[in-house]
Each structure stands twice: as structure tokens, then as C-alpha cells.
Amino acid sequence: MTVGQPPPENRPDLRALFFAFSTVGLSGFGGVLPFARRMLVEERRWMTADAFNTQLGLCQFLPGPNVVNLAVVVGKQYRGWAGAIVAPLGLLLGPFLVVLLLGMLYDHWGHLPMVQGMLRGIAGVGVGLLFAMAWRMGTALKARAIFLPFTVLTVAAVAFLRWPLPAVMLGGLVLSGAVAYWHLGRR
Prior knowledge:
mainly alpha, 7 helices, 0% strand, globular
């Protein structure tokens, strides 16, 4: 059993992975990462908060949507390659069908001011969910306060200094790796 993995009796089967990630996929519009965290860490307890942060960090470093990458990693971790296929399929199938339907409805009624206002409100909710998830992830890092400055440095580099994301990611990888090596060497 690896760090952050549930005990064998709490390991999800393929059906549980599919339906859990289906629930996540159908829970939000514009960003379901907060729902994935709640499902994985708080509700199902398939991961610890620390393991979620670690896995998400890896998934953010990989190309593609973070939550899809996370579904692949979690599915693979618990049920091998079949889980790596089933979990993201569950995550994406329902929203794909919903988006097809909403696209047809938007083609017909998208020009209405009420519809435009509703879409702006939904965007605000999505931003709020992302801030709430960031707050919860930050509280899980309290025990690892030595790494919190990387959050501030990353936000400053990308948002304020407008440095290119690949350079910031590479620099963060080198710096955080050096700090982790130094920190573990002190134990």
C-alpha cells in the first residue's frame, strides 16, 4: 500500500470509480476540481489531503486538463489500466452529453440578455469554487509550511510579472526539489 492509498477494504472497484467520477463530472460547470477533492478526500476517503495535493501537483505539471489527469492517476492507482480508462470516462461522458444538449439550446436562445446574464453568474460561481478549493488545499499544507512560499512566488511570477508558465514550472520544480532534498536531509 502506497502513501495516501486507502486500506484494501476501502479500495474502489471499477464501478465505484466510474460512478464517483460521473458524479464529479456532473457536479459543476467550468471546473469540477473542488468537487473531485471533496469526493476523494472528504466523502469517499480514497485519498488523504496530503496525497491529493501531491497527486494534483503532478497532474498540474502534465499536459491536459488537471482533473482528467487526476482521474487517470487515481483510476490507475486503484484498478490499473482499466481504472485509468474507467475513471476519466465516468468524469467526461455525462458532461459531454450535457454540453451537446446545451450547445443546441445556446444556438437557439444564446442571444437573449437573460441567458447572457445567467452565464456571467455561473462564471462567478466557478471562480468562488476555485478559491474555496485553494483555501482547503492551503490548510492541508500547514504541516509543510516550508513550501508555502512557492505558492506566493508562483502567483507573483505568473500573475504579476507575466513570466511564461513553462519557465515558472521548470524553475519551481528545481527550487522545490532542492528545498525538499535539503529538508529531508535535515531529518
